[in-house]
Design brief:
This protein has 262 residues and is α+β, with helices and mostly antiparallel strands. The protein has helices at 2-26, 31-39, 68-72, 88-99, 101-106, 119-133, 148-152, 158-162, 164-167, 199-215, 237-243; strands at residues 58-61, 64-67, 76-82, 109-115, 141-143, 174-179, 185-191, 229-230, 245-251, 254-258. A hairpin with a 5-residue loop joins strand 6 (174-179) and strand 7. Helix 4 (88-99) crosses helix 6 (119-133). One of its GO terms (biological process) is cell redox homeostasis.
């Protein structure tokens, strides 16, 4: 009896351990093959942080083939994405940005849009935007039908990631990236598809970032050019009074001032 039990145990171990162990590993990650098959993108999306270098990419645009870093060159840039051509919210947004061309240029900011369609539809959509908004879209619009840039910049919603097996393709959310001349990401804004963006806020943030970089200050809530700034806590009140006008100490850590020294 003892010899029979000894021979049966190894056979049971060899039969049960390997078949149940190996399928468990392959079933844990069903998403990776789907991403590669349908989107030609990695399963893991990058984590973009403020201060990190904006990922470079090459793409086709309404202005021809483009290298993103070469496009930025030594300027500020704003990259904003759209779910699709011929969609109502996107049409109003692109028209609004186009109308602000002069204001972006005054700040040394280049604009570039992205829409999750191929290049064949962009030109006709631009015609619609120009007609509806009574403007002229002069900045390039990236064609991103394969979602390469959308995944590179994490412009995909969690719902679409969760349902990628059923949909086979992901929609691009409304994202805004403000990038400085060093090609560092300075601001990100993510919007749901149902909500149009606020161009005034984009300009306000650019003003705040550029002023802070130049003057070494911070800006309070709803700040606009010409209003009082905040003296950073790293600067003493005495040093602030030598640099700024009308320094007001509300709290030791909260001091307002006017830019410039008369």
């Amino acid at each position: 009896m003892a010899s029979v039990i000894h021979r049966a145990a190894p056979r049971a171990f060899r039969f049960t351990a390997l078949p149940t162990f190996r399928p468990a590993i392959s079933l844990q990650r069903p998403a990776a093959p789907l991403f590669r098959r349908h989107l030609s993108t990695p399963a893991e999306q990058p984590r973009l942080r403020l201060g990190s270098i904006a990922p470079n990419f090459q793409a086709k645009t309404t202005h021809g083939d483009l290298d993103f870093h070469a496009f930025i060159d030594k300027s500020w840039a704003i990259l904003f994405s759209h779910p699709a051509d011929f969609t109502p919210v996107c049409t109003t947004e692109l028209g609004a940005f186009a109308k602000l061309k002069a204001q972006f240029e005054q700040r040394g900011v280049k604009m570039i849009g992205l829409s999750a369609n191929d290049l064949s539809q962009h030109s006709q959509w631009v015609d619609d935007i120009n007609e509806v908004a009574k403007t002229s879209v002069e900045f390039p619009i990236i064609a991103d039908a394969d979602r390469n840039v959308a995944f590179l910049y994490d412009m995909i919603s969690q719902d679409d990631l969760d349902n990628i097996a059923e949909k086979g393709i992901a929609f691009t959310i409304r994202a805004v990236f403000i990038i400085d001349p060093a090609k560092k990401i300075r601001l990100t804004m993510l919007y749901p598809a149902s909500t149009g963006r606020n161009t005034t806020e984009v300009l306000r943030v650019i003003d705040s970032l550029q002023t802070a970089d130049k003057e070494g200050i911070a800006t309070p809530i709803n700040w606009e050019v010409g209003q009082d700034i905040i003296v950073p806590t790293s600067v003493s009140t005495e040093a602030a009074r030598q640099k700024f006008d009308n320094v007001r100490e509300v709290k030791p850590y909260l001091r307002f001032a006017k830019l410039g020294k008369s």
